[in-house]
Amino acid sequence: MWLFVSGFPRSGTSFMVAAMNAGGLPLLHCPRREAWLREAARQASGPRSNDSYLEMSEEQKALVLRGAAGEGHIMKLQPPGPSQLRDGLPHRIIFMSREEGLSVKSMALHFKKKNFRAQRNGKTIDDLLNDSRQKNGCISAHVVHFDEVTQNPLPVFEFLRSEGWPIEPAKAAAIVDRSRVNFGPNAYYSKNSLLLGGPGAL
Question: Which of 54, 55, 59, 94 lies 20 to 30 Å from 202, alpha-carbon distance?
């Protein structure tokens, strides 16, 4: 089974990947890409020590899309990635949703660009959800709202567990820091993460 979190920029995808990792799912991402993204953010908006993006490299993504890597791991796969998955690949996917104005404001603050607009390409979250549910191999696809999971996380993770996501809801919910609407630095990488360049890496 392949396990994904997707969504538009600044909708909470990194947050959800980290929470699912804390809930017991091994993480697949690329630390080298992580370092590059953090440096880009620092240059754009100054130091932001609590930012973590948890994205795969292009090489990892190519392997995952055809089902050659990533089975059983939680992975961030932003659009149009979900539509590019190999036909018949068994997967579950969560789409993060956030009010568009808040996403745009978050990105503008993040990169200090007043004219930024979320890169939606005419799509809505409902469009992505419907497209995924029609894809051969999709076991489940759900929308999780950022405000709901940050304000009352445990019921959200309990629901996901009831839908077949192999997580421990209390552990996933425990990393939510409502005062920062973020997650603690110790939640970024768990012991069972699959790191590029580390033991068992791609």
Answer: 94
Which of helix, strand or coil describes residue 67?
Answer: coil
3-state secondary structure of 132: helix
* Phi, then psi, of 7 in degrees rounded to 5: 150, 170
The 3-state DSSP class for residue 99 equals coil
| CATH number of the domain encompassing residue 91 | 3.40.50
- CA 28, distance to chain mean position in Å, is 11
* pLDDT tens per residue across span 91-149: 999 999 987 654 444 544 444 444 444 455 678 889 999 999 999 999 999 999 998 99
pTM of the model: 0.78
Answer whether 189's CB lies under 8 Å from 23's CB. Answer: no
Closest-CA residue to 5 (of 62, 71, 54, 69):
54
> Does the N-terminal peptide bond of residue 80 adopt cis geometry, omega within 30 degrees of 0?
yes
CA separation for the pair 111, 56 (Å, rounded)? 21
Q: What is the pLDDT at residue 9?
A: 82
Asked, for residue 121, whether it belongs to a domain, the answer is yes
Residues shown for the chain: 202
